[in-house]
UniProtKB/TrEMBL annotation:
Gene symbol of the encoding locus: petB
Protein name, UniProt field: Cytochrome bc1 complex cytochrome b subunit
Enzyme class of the recorded protein, top EC level: translocase
PANTHER family found in the cross-reference section: CYTOCHROME B
Reactions catalysed: a quinol + 2 Fe(III)-[cytochrome c](out) = a quinone + 2 Fe(II)-[cytochrome c](out) + 2 H(+)(out)
Length: 185
């Protein structure tokens, strides 16, 4: 056995310097040492969180290319069947994202499926919390944030126009009840 100790690497020195300045090791150790859930139903909250993060990131990317204007334009893009058709600028930019932006249709599909996963995982997660009685005292901040997130998602999905292809400023809630239009005016 030799008595010489190995010299710490440059990365180890930088990590030690960062930890001495910002004190990150204690928080990181607590996160790493968390016990992983033993039942699959505890992962529903994480699925909702991760799908929401994907939804935010893909939404920011799509926002860079989308123009929500309802002004009428003539489509002259790549998609042949719609050339020369009058449409809203919002629909034209949606077609441009799908056909002309590299990876645009893929990102739109990711955004769509993340929204569906977010909604489904929130509903199933809230049902699990209700049926297992996990909502009882002590009420944790995560429970309150879950209720806020669920109510926000429900109000968002039932009040907005879901996509630019509808070309209608009428909210979804008004289209669900066409027999009683006076309620929504």
């Amino acid at each position: 056995m030799s008595d010489t100790a190995q010299k710490p690497s440059r990365a180890a020195k930088q990590a030690e310097a960062m930890d001495s300045r910002y004190h990150l090791a204690a928080g990181m150790k607590r996160q790493i040492n968390k016990v992983f859930p033993t039942h699959w139903s505890f992962m529903l909250g994480e699925i909702a969180l991760y799908s929401f993060i994907v939804l935010l990131l893909s939404g920011v990317y799509l926002t860079l290319f989308f123009d929500p204007s309802m002004s009428e334009v003539t489509y002259n893009g790549i998609y042949q069947p719609l050339r020369g058709v009058q449409m809203s600028k919002a629909y034209e930019t949606t077609l441009n994202i799908s056909f002309e932006v590299r990876g645009g249709l893929f990102v739109r599909q990711i955004h769509h499926w993340a929204a569906l996963m977010f909604a489904a995982s929130i509903m199933v997660h809230m049902a699990r919390i209700f049926f297992t009685g996990a909502f009882r005292r002590p009420v944790r901040p995560t429970g309150s944030s879950g209720r806020c997130c669920s109510s926000w998602r429900c109000s968002k999905g039932s009040s907005d126009t879901p996509c630019p292809t509808t070309c209608s400023p009428v909210p979804v809630s008004a289209r669900r009840f066409p027999a009683s239009p006076w309620v929504f005016r």
